[in-house]
Amino acid sequence: MGVAILVGLVVILVVVGVIGYLLTIYNSLVRLKNDIDKAWANIDVLLKQRHDELPKLIETCKGYMQYEQKTFQLVVEARNAYSKAPTLAEKAQADNLITGALKTLFAVSENYPDLKANNNFMQLQNRISELEEKIADRREFFNDDVNTYNIRIQQLPDVFVAKMMSLQHKELFKVSDEDRRDVEVKMT
After folding, report:
1. Among candidates 126, 159, 112, 146, which has minimal Cα distance to 43?
2. Tag placement on the chain: N or C end, fewer CB within 10 Å?
3. pLDDT digits (tens, 9 = 90+) for 137-181
4. How far apart are CA 125 and CA 49, in angstroms?
5. How high is the pLDDT of residue 72?
6. Distance CA 137, CA 132 (A)
7. Separation of alpha carbons 105 and 122, rounded Å
């Protein structure tokens, strides 16, 4: 009888240990999933700030850059695409459009010395450049979180818990092909 109780206690301890281990895996996967959401929310806040600065920048430039309607249109279209993007992937794609449009705008502004001397333009350009640096930092944090999450949901024994939770692979924030190209500056 004493052996049966000892075996029963060992079985109970093993079951409790396995359940505890699975709960630890579950909780860490939930934390990683929430870290990804938080990282994206931090990027989104900065993208919103940049989004709010763009109309001011465009208005400041319009008086000086009268012949650059195509450049302004690129910025406006990219800003509108971001506003209408419902999913994280579409917002990321729209963000890449804004980044490319801003590079073009700042490159074209080099042709307008009066604009470059305008204090308001310089402040807006610096503000947007600071936001771009912060966005790049937050993208790095986001990608770190996504990478850790993707590794964990594929590793043993986490993969079994991840399947029970229906966790799916997440996409890293990637630079578009457009952002890899040099900005073409045309002298008008």
Report:
1. 146
2. N
3. 999 999 999 999 999 999 999 999 999 999 999 999 887 665 555
4. 13
5. 82
6. 9
7. 13
